Amino acid sequence: MPPRKRGRKGKAADDVAPAEDDRDYISTLPDDALEHILSFVPAQDAVRTCVLARRWRHVWKSAKGLHIITPGSIEEVREFVDHLLLIRAGSTIDTFELRTQEGMFDEEHAHVKLWIRHALACKAQALQFEIYGGSTMLELWDVHLLFASQHLTSLEFAYVRFTDCFLNFSSCPALQHLRIRKSEIFDAKRISCQSLKHLSVTDCNSRRTFRTRIQAPNLASLCLDEAFQRAPGLSVAKNLSLLSKSSNTFIFRRDLTCCPTFSHLKNLLLNEYWCMPDVCALACILEHSPVLEKLTLQLFSKGPKHQVEIKRNPNPKVISAAMSQHLKIVEVKCEVVDDTVLNVLKFLSKHNMCFTFEE
């Protein structure tokens, strides 16, 4: 008996079956997950999701990340941002980012500051600004008033002009990360923040007539790259990583000349710049670091893996009086043991330190 032909009903079922693979799985996620996803999407695109389906109509209003990113100017997004913040009606913001490519006009400074205040009122934890292009930079003053917040933990600025002589972030008791790049800090004589742990100031313009002082007692990391004509005073730091990229860079120039006492310095990381052409700079720092506990010399090595590691746990009973009596660990990391490395080892050996090689 020949097999029976499949009827219309069966054929229709076969035609419909593949449609199951076209289901919208993203829309089945809970609202919290959708809001989290939209927090990483540029705000303009996040708003456009309202036309996807009824489920998406209001999700974008509660996204905790606002990223205003445009290839144009502030003027082109001003009306959009004003309406966006109004419709959100005070929903919590974790991250607020403003990035443009064509700068801004003078009359738009007030608008940007209103957006900053609104974001902080919505408990923003991170603010990022990069207003590139145009002849007018975003000008900020009275930062202790403008950025006053109990929730702010991270601040990033690019292409900003600071007009304060004192960048005081004491009104941000939770601030831990501050990054300033490609900005103007001509008038800043001091940067102060008690809670700050990570500070980066790179590619900035400053004055030669004075040096900017940094008051951040809890600072764990500091990056200064073409930031100041004169290096800030660092004598109160607890941890220092001084990794110069060029032998023509005179980081620390005034501190070395004045020979301050680094009375709080416990961990010190230096590269080959501090050992060339001789060890004078290295000797100066060590002689004025009375409580130093760990010294790491990273010589011509990019890390984190090194061909050669030379370690020593000094005995405080025999260590030279010119060195910290608290010194517990000395590490020399390099690719090869060349003349520079040998000179460093000879210098340390004069202070009663012997080393073991680890490859």
UniProtKB/TrEMBL annotation:
Domain F-box: 23-59
Highest taxon of the lineage: Eukaryota
Entry-linked Gene3D superfamilies: 1.20.1280.50, Ribonuclease Inhibitor
PROSITE patterns on file: FBOX
Matching InterPro entries: F-box-like_dom_sf, F-box_AtFBL13-like, F-box_dom, F-box_SCFL_complex_component, LRR_dom_sf
PANTHER family cross-referenced by the UniProt entry: F-BOX DOMAIN-CONTAINING PROTEIN, OS11G0201299 PROTEIN
Protein name: F-box domain-containing protein
Organism per entry: Urochloa decumbens
